[in-house]
Specification:
The protein is an alpha+beta fold. Helices cover 31% and strands 14% of the residues. The protein has 2 domains: 1-38; 41-106, no CATH class.
Length: 106
């Protein structure tokens, strides 16, 4: 069974159009992902020491004052799962997958 010339041309045109649209969408998606990656801050405030359950608590175990956590600015590439971070104001970009363990969400 043979197809008329017009049908074959239509199929080839449809396939080429689909490939063009797919490549165009892939390019836009890649550009959007690159733009999101530029939002990541270069450094973060890492909290070290203090009481891990309540770093700002006035009293630790036995009623003694808990040692406050110290802050250290580190490159975001050095942040690992489980690290405690201090979140700055809303004007500071913070692009991390995280879980809120203390405090409140805005």
């Amino acid at each position: 069974m043979t197809l008329p010339d017009g049908a074959a041309h239509a199929q080839v045109t449809f396939i080429l159009l689909g490939k063009y649209l797919e490549a165009s969408a892939k390019g836009r998606t890649s550009a959007a992902i690159q733009a999101l990656l530029t939002l990541a801050p270069p450094t973060a405030l890492l909290l070290e020491g203090g009481d891990a359950d309540a770093p700002d608590a006035p009293a630790g175990k036995g009623g003694a004052a808990a040692a406050p956590a110290t802050e250290r600015e580190v490159p975001t590439a050095l942040i690992h799962r489980g690290d405690r971070l201090k979140v700055r104001g809303a004007s500071t970009a913070l692009w991390l997958l995280s879980e809120l363990r203390q405090g409140t969400e805005a």
